[in-house]
């Protein structure tokens, strides 16, 4: 499993070519699952609070040539990659999971922070899907802040969750050093918590560098089903890779305490005040 931290900007052709080169390099290294950041193809917004609506990332047809090229390059590898999707006259912050056989899974970001709703429509579902590396699901950015997102995928049988991000440092209280930024702490916390509470693998990618007023954190990582960080790029660009027997490791994590089997949905009622 490989989680990428890297910078991808507005130039679609350049982004596709860069992604193909990374896929080819990962294939030589024996990577079976490669997770690119959110907005790999076409870049992300330059400002979360007041997006420039005249300088939005280009919206792409999911059946267009860009994903087709990524799919062809993937071959036997399972590749998750982010882009802006054009559909029904709307724009979505989206991700696709592909192999050489085509698109296996698709996700539109559901949870929207700050002013992102000015630039994108929101998705409305979390749907796991089958891949050569096992049953998976995808989250984008802010989705992983909400436990219900990963839980919906895990209860649907996902063993691996790909968390694709363009996650910046704090926009209101930025620290002088990225590792000290509060968003740096939260980014790691959410990755580890979502893995541990569902006893699954989380493969978390992120953008690096700067886009407009946003400075991205990096911190790509692979987290095991006990919530332990198995590999990380920290704040630098690069790829965090881990070899694991997914089924064996999840089985070991759930041997005594199986969180999903021990859920009590009948007790989870919000809005009730006990007298």
TrEMBL record:
Record SUPFAM superfamilies: Carbon-nitrogen hydrolase
Ranges of residues in domain CN hydrolase: 1-248
PROSITE patterns: CN_HYDROLASE (PS50263)
Ranges in a coiled coil: none
Alphabetized UniProt keyword annotations: Hydrolase
InterPro entries registered for this protein in UniProt: Aliph_Amidase/BUP, C-N_Hydrolase, C-N_Hydrolase_sf
Gene Ontology molecular function terms on file: hydrolase activity, acting on carbon-nitrogen (but not peptide) bonds, in linear amides
Name recorded for this polypeptide: Putative carbon-nitrogen hydrolase
Organism (species): Gordonia soli NBRC 108243
């Amino acid at each position: 499993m490989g989680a990428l931290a890297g910078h991808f900007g507005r130039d679609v052709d350049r982004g596709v070519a860069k992604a193909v080169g990374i896929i080819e390099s990962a294939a030589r290294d024996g990577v079976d699952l490669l997770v690119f950041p959110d907005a790999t193809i076409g870049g992300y917004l330059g400002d979360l609070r007041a997006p420039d609506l005249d300088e939005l990332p280009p919206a792409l047809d999911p059946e267009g040539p860009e994903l087709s090229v990524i799919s062809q390059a993937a071959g036997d590898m399972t590749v998750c990659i982010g882009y802006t999707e054009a559909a029904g006259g709307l724009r979505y912050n989206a991700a696709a999971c592909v192999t050489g056989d085509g698109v296996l899974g698709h996700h539109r970001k559901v949870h929207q922070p700050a002013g992102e709703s000015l630039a994108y429509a929101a998705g409305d579902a979390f749907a796991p899907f089958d891949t050569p590396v096992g049953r998976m699901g995808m989250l984008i950015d802010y989705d992983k802040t909400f436990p219900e997102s990963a839980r919906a995928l895990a209860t649907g049988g996902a063993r691996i969750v790909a968390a694709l991000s363009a996650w910046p440092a704090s926009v209101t209280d930025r620290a002088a050093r990225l590792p000290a930024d509060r968003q740096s702490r939260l980014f790691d916390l959410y990755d580890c918590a979502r893995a541990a509470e569902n006893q699954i693998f989380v493969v978390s990618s992120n953008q690096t560098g700067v886009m407009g007023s946003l400075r991205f954190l990096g911190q790509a990582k692979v987290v095991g089903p006990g919530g332990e960080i198995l590999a990380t790029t920290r704040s630098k660009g690069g790829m965090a890779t881990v070899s694991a027997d997914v089924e064996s490791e999840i089985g070991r994590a759930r041997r005594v305490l199986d969180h999903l089997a021990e859920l009590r949905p009948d007790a989870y009622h919000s809005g009730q005040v006990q007298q």
